[in-house]
Write a structure and sequence with these properties.
The N and C termini lie far apart (39 Å). The protein is mainly α. The protein folds into two domains: 102 residues, no CATH class; 75 residues, Nonspecific Lipid-transfer Protein, Chain A (2-Layer Sandwich). The chain has nine helices and three strands; from the N terminus they run αααααααβββαα.
Length: 207
């Protein structure tokens, strides 16, 4: 548990470092998360870091058990008119260890996937810890899309990471770096050359 939180805190700090260099216009760049710009993803990460188990349940009830509504209300609450102020909020919650009532692996999924939601459109490269990316990937392939995972997306596929100890599933093979596999399983677009194998077109939607 402590190891996962250490990685989450490290990744939050790295993301803060990257965002400190942004120009004003870059904050409105569309992210990989459909309908959200860079600033919105950051506001979501602030809200996510501040979420507690009890608080999440009460807010979910208030939102009529709609994850979309609870995300929207959290973003509205944490998204300042000034992106730099939202970034300051994120700096303030960098070391928190609170979470919604979900497996701790979801904290890795959040910071890795949303980290790339932000970095890729901005052309920022980042080296992620591959063992922990594989842990996040293990969680995503076993979790339903309805709960934010990608179980249905990988049916009939065998995913093999080229840079981590990850080999799961049966069917047509998909080879690629663990972070690229994680993004694709999570429903994010990846470059066609990042994944190879007979199953790659099915996972990337290129078939």
């Amino acid at each position: 548990m402590n190891e996962i939180w250490a990685v989450v805190h490290q990744e939050r700090a790295a993301l803060i470092h990257d965002l400190l260099a942004l120009e004003k216009q870059q904050w409105t760049t569309p992210s990989l998360c459909l309908g959200w710009d860079i600033h919105t993803v950051l506001a979501h990460l602030v809200n996510d870091a501040k979420t507690t188990r009890i608080g999440f349940v009460s807010k979910l009830i208030a939102a009529g058990f709609s994850f979309d509504r609870i995300n929207a209300s959290g973003i509205a609450r944490e998204r300042s008119t000034d992106p730099n102020q939202t970034l300051a909020y994120f700096q303030g919650v960098r070391s928190r260890t609170t979470s919604a009532p979900a497996p701790l692996a979801t904290r890795l999924v959040e910071i890795f996937v949303h980290g790339e939601d932000i970095r890729r459109p901005l052309g920022i490269d980042h080296k992620y810890p591959v063992a922990e990316v594989a842990t996040a990937l293990h969680y995503q392939v076993k979790t339903s899309v309805k709960l934010g995972g990608g179980k249905e997306r990988v049916e009939g596929l065998r995913l093999i990471a080229t840079d981590a100890d990850f080999d799961e599933g049966r069917g047509k093979e998909v080879h690629g770096a663990a972070i690229a596999l994680l993004l694709a399983v999570s429903g994010r677009p990846v470059h066609i050359r990042e994944l190879t194998g007979l199953g790659a077109p099915s996972l990337t939607g290129a078939n």
